[in-house]
Amino acid sequence: MTEKIVVPVLGESITEATVSKWLKKEGENVEADEPIVELETDKVNLEVPSPINGTLTEINSKDGSIVEVGALLGSIEEIGSNEENKEINKIDSSKELKNEKIKTEDTEEPKIFEEPPKTPKLDEPPLILTDEIKKEKIEQNISNDIALSPAVRKIVVENQIDVKSVTGSGKDGRILKGDLINAMGAKPQPSERKIKFGQEERIKMTRLRQTIAKRLKQAQENAALLTTFNEVDMFNVMQMRKENQDDFQSRYGVKLGFMSFFVKACIVALKSFPAVNAEIEGDEIIYKNYYNISFAVGTDKGLVVPVLKNADELSFADIEKNIKEISEKAKNGKLTIEDLQGGTFTISNGGVYGSMLSTPILNLPQSGVLGMHNIVDRPMVVDNEIKIRPIMYLALSYDHRIIDGKESVSFLKLIKENLEDPRRLFLNI
């Protein structure tokens, strides 16, 4: 019996995919539920499993092909018993050996052409960087009778100057630095450094990268983007983490990070300013009374934005566990369509890469995105005294069509207040 392999339903609004790579070759045996081909969609990579035990007899869609939902990918021939499999394998193996033998007997041994070694001409300059060799020669040619200071000697060697052609203006005809500068100005030495530039390389954009580019461009074209900034003193959050890290980790098996504090602070602010958690659809505003926080994760294949569902119902430990689990799935290419759908607000942490300040772009159809940045010790006035405090710059990009300036500034200010006094997060104030 032959079983056809077709493109499965890919998820909401996804109608086609790209065949990323076949994990099995024609003629190879496969087991039921074993991944045989990898598809790349606009959002995630998807592995298609084998429906039965059998042999992959035909591949209809090669690597790089664009296929629609339901399209034929290949065929699998079902294999009956294990004994039958063994016999088939024996026959195939004997055929392969026989064919290899015939091929060896009928094929002439290829002649190996050995190019005689070229003897380099002594007067021919080498096609390599010659600066180091020339420096050594110049150093050797500088007579011991010529007194040169270390600084002057360095200039002579680096600039390949013939000291015999330079008239010294110092005491007893000593060559000074100014003499060398004048000599170089009058008769500059052309550089003989041969620079070899790298060749261009053209690589087709992955479907994920194409989607990222398309969505970012759409955000700029379709939304009235504006960014407001603020700064937050992270001293109290860092102290709380330091004092409770060991107990937290021993109890929950995960480290207490900054993201859980930011998620909690954002949820408090979203509840106070519902427009930031809303979206525009046509001539209507959809206010969402649930809080699914998207967070940006950088991977080898590009930026993905998985979603932390119902984040308002999660504890600090649950947030940290879920973020760790989803981030690992993203980096290993194991995210599903469900992991990427349903976000209402996004947090992007450029600080992990050392970013000081940025203007994040909206993740449509969302109306707001918070940008976190690196923490730097800066002088601050605290209780009329200048103190060194760990400061982070925050950036809120928002859709001005739905969010007014007053709301955006107040939203970011509330996040700042809750982070600078994290006790407020536990008191729901």
Concise synopsis of the structure shown:
The two termini are 66 Å apart. With 429 residues, the chain is α+β, with helices and mostly antiparallel strands.
Topology of this structure?
Blueprint: E1 2-6, E2 16-22, E3 29-30, E4 35-40, E5 45-49, E6 54-59, E7 66-68, E8 72-78, H1 82-106, H2 131-141, H3 150-159, H4 177-186, H5 207-222, E9 225-233, H6 235-252, H7 259-272, E10 278-281, E11 284-287, E12 293-295, E13 297-299, E14 302-304, E15 307-308, H8 316-331, H9 337-340, E16 345-349, E17 368-372, E18 375-382, E19 385-399, H10 405-420, H11 423-427
Parallel strand pairs: 12-16, 16-17
Antiparallel strand pairs: 1-8, 2-4, 2-7, 3-6, 4-5, 6-8, 9-19, 10-11, 12-15, 13-14, 17-19, 18-19
Helix pairs in contact: 2-3, 7-8, 7-10
Globally, the shape reads: extended
**Proportion of helical residues:** 25-40%
- Please state the CA-atom Rg, rounded to the nearest Å: 34 Å
Q: What does the average pLDDT come to?
A: 80
Instruction: Provide the number of structural domains.
Output: 3
Query: How many strand units?
Result: 19
Please indicate the percent range of residues in DSSP E strands (runs of 2 or more). Answer: 15-25%
Q: Can you tell me the CATH architecture of the largest domain?
A: 2-Layer Sandwich
How far from one another are the termini?
A: 66 Å
CATH class of the largest domain: Alpha Beta
- Please, what is the CATH homologous superfamily of the largest domain? Chloramphenicol acetyltransferase-like domain
Helix and strand content put the structural class at alpha+beta
Number of helices: 11
Give, in order, the helices and strands. Answer: EEEEEEEEHHHHHEHHEEEEEEHHEEEEHH
Uncertain spans, ≥5 residues at pLDDT below 50?
95-107, 126-133, 186-193
Q: Write the CATH fold name of the largest domain.
A: Chloramphenicol Acetyltransferase
Main sheet properties = 7 strands, mixed
